[in-house]
Amino acid sequence: MAEFLTAKELAIKVVICLAVLAVIMCLCAMVGTQKVSLAKVFAGPGEVPGQNTDYEIFVGVRLPRVILAALVGAALACSGVVLQAILRNPLADPYILGISSGAGLGATIAVLSGVTWSFWGGSPIALFAFAGALTTVWLVWCIGRLTGKSQVTTLLLAGVVVNAFFSAVIMFLISIAKSEQISWTVFWLMGNITEKDLPVLWVSAGCILTGIFGLFSICHRLNILTFGEEEAKGLGVDTEKTRVVAFGFAAFITAIAVSLSGLIGFVGLIIPHGVRLVFGPDHRQLLPVSAIIGSAFLVVADTIARIIVAPAQLPVGVITAIAGGPFFLVLLARYNRKISWLK
Amino acid sequence: MNGIIEVENLSFGYRAGEILKDLNFEVMPGKFVGIAGPNGAGKTTLLNLLCGLLRPKAGSIKIDSARIESYSVKKLAQKVAVVRQEFVPVFDFTVAEMVSMARTPYLGTFGFESKADKKFVAEALEMTDTAQFASRPLAQLSGGERQRVFIARALAQNTPILLLDEPTSFLDLKHQVGIYDLLKRMQQEYGKTIVAVTHDINLTIQYADEALLLGADSNYHIGKTNDVFSQQQIEKVFGVRTFTGKVGQENFFLPLGKFAKDNQIITRKPPISQ
């Protein structure tokens, strides 16, 4: 008898994954150069500020950073899932349509122009990166539509060309920049999770979770969109509308993630693949599970980046690339041997 | 006219020129119609027009008495199911997942199947004998099995009209006959209206009620299969001589190439009759 994914079954899986994620986030927030006792954290802040340092470190410093890593991980993983579906290309990642180079260019311009004003208590680099990312995606979308409404290949090529062009502009700008500006730009381009103010965190969380929810509502149509235009229309999917919604939400959450943390590679590529290998390609399940696993992966990676050479810190992008590649290869090898727990 | 498909003065062309010109025909509910013709005659184009993927340049198409343009993509998918030439999906969906996607035109916001949807899918799998590999990825099946899965999907879509584009290309004789037997059952047991584009004139004669023969010069012939397909007509439209035989009341045609063995058989032996 055929097995069907039911809403109840999915809800149970998601709740279990969320519980595991919560434990991982909690454990990661406890780890660091300064050990934190959970008992002291639960004791509360105390009457005088600074009285309970464990609480201050856990709630004030590490938890926001862990939450930020979780949000960025979820956004990149979801974006990867969606772009792989709408482009019908397993090699697609969140940066394939020029978001990385656009954000990079925005950030480079911000650093080189030496803007000093702050935006909502945050760095103007994030704002420039966000604007750069969205402008580039819009540009790629417009170029992609020049040859027709549904030319996925043209869209992909437009992304590659714009990426290459903007990367060249970034190189040019770096080559004429001062050395301290270069180190800032390169540090940003490598991808970093840093502490953010709470209002920035909550607004970002709201935007990313709304985006993910929006994407979840079209997941059953994304399944069919992977068969191509003709098949999808034959099965009653408005391909143009679905593609615009998917592309819009994916670009938006990626732009937020990039502006928060720079360019963190590998998450958007390997997490969807890993989850697909284990749970199958049904996007109704793939998207939410990828979001949670992506969160957990980046939270752990950021914790490693934070403690491995403490008190210094590594860019988290280095950890995701170093750990992600072999992890994915192991998963692929095990899957191919049809080990039962993976099925 | 009161056909479930009504085509009036239909014309369509690409930049290179007009392919279909002033086409008029109707398909009555529950009929099996085969569309034949040489390459480039516009068979697949006509199929794409009938499923709303292309818009006519002139004339009109009505599905169930309403103009095709008046249907939303979703509503049209509740009237017409399409089986195209087989393909392997990019991602490893199982047979059950593939077939259950046929229920998309009936699903709510988040796209989870109801009990009724699951019943349709289970029935379609049973009827097409594909339930045995429901949990296997589509890519692991043979061509014939895959084509049965696509037909199961069309059946689960529960539409009165089923359009097929060369459903038996790449299949061996056993599977070709198997697919046509399945289509005939769908016509007889479920009352489906079936329109199939095909290169196999003999299978069309054997299974279809009517045929539409599209010529390369925008001419067309429609009617009972025995009236549409004749030795002269085939030679005129396809430019190929045939040996004609008879099984029961039906004519059959064996194409004879210039260098085929015994191609003079046409002059030596009388038609076989049973």
What does this structure look like?
The complex is a heterodimer of chains A (343) and B (274). Chain A contains 14 helices and no strands. The C terminus of chain A is likely disordered. In chain A, helix 4 runs antiparallel to helix 7, helix 5 runs antiparallel to helix 11 and helix 12 runs parallel beside helix 14. Chain A starts with 6 loop residues before the first helix and ends in a 7-residue tail after the last helix. Helices cover 72% and strands 0% of the residues of chain A. Chain A is globular, with a radius of gyration of 21 Å. Chain A has a single domain, classed as ABC transporter involved in vitamin B12 uptake, BtuC (Orthogonal Bundle). The relative contact order of chain A is 0.16. Chain A has 343 residues and is an all-alpha fold. Chain B is α/β, with parallel strands linked by helices and 274 residues long. Chain B has 3 domains: 156 residues, Rossmann fold (3-Layer(aba) Sandwich); 70 residues, no CATH class; 35 residues, no CATH class. Chain B is built from 10 helices and 12 strands. In chain B, helix 4 runs antiparallel to helix 5. The longest helix of chain B is centred in the middle third of the chain and has 18 residues. Classes of the chains: A mainly alpha (343), B alpha/beta (274). The interface between A and B is large, with 33 and 45 residues.
